[in-house]
Amino acid sequence: MTSLSPSSLSSPSTPSSLSRIRVGSAPDSWGVWFPDDPRQVPWRRFLDEVADSGYEWIELGPYGYLPSDPAVLAEETARRGLKVSAGTVFTGLHHGAAVWDKTWAHVSDIATLTQAMGARHLVVIPSFWRDDKTGEVLEPDTLTPGQWRNLTSLTERLGHEVRERYGLTIVVHPHADTHIDSEENVTRFLDGTDSELVSLCLDTGHYAYCGGDSVKLIETYGERIGYLHLKQVDPGILADVRAKGTPFGPAVAQGVMCEPPSGVPELEPVLEAAQRLGVELFAIVEQDMYPCEPDAPLPIARRTRAFLRSCGV
Questions:
Q1: Is it true that domain 6-311 has CATH number 3.40.50.150?
Q2: Which UniProt keywords apply (predicted)?
């Protein structure tokens, strides 16, 4: 990563100053949560529409949604002027060494495709403690000290293995209804892991959903921020979700993740704080909308891209 000069760090923020932020979108913004689901738009339509919206970068989304053959995917993205910023994996490393082999089999397939597409990041999402579709409670919502040790040590191992074998950097994604969610749990996770091996994918929507302040996190743990997901929550719906203890999946169906700039947190201060870090960062738009009508995502994506241009990216 290239550092900015002190003078550029201290200069007032203007639209042209957010030069280190590379904006993209993801299948999530088209209501895609699963490799195959009849309520999701076909992958060709996603690629057509994300390019039409003015984005250059995309994530792979759930493995198997986009073609897993690198040659096919490279052809399909290139002819639309798209490039891949990251792949995404799901892990349950707090369960300990017994899950390592199964986890690695999942990670290695996705890392292979991610590397082949020229990306350099692997977004790591912890497993949910309750099912994101049904809301069924799968395990306790808090970890024991032993589970925390498993989580931190095996995440470090994952970071090392992914870097050594594939040249990728893992960025761990705090997520609602997982054990890395609130400010307390995010900071505990960061304090317990090696900064050389583990970086953070800060999702502004999930962090706000769980009560966190994205700007504060960037300013406090800036050296650990390796990637951004841009997302907002609707404060009114969030208050209802919290009051009722609604699981994340049904909360999304209620519209808790909303179109910018109508929700929180404000994205321009987040982008400005990220720019002040002096490193290049991806900022990938993810507006959870599963399930959604197939014609809904494109106009939202166009408006969101226009809004982000007004912010200077």
A1: no
A2: Lyase
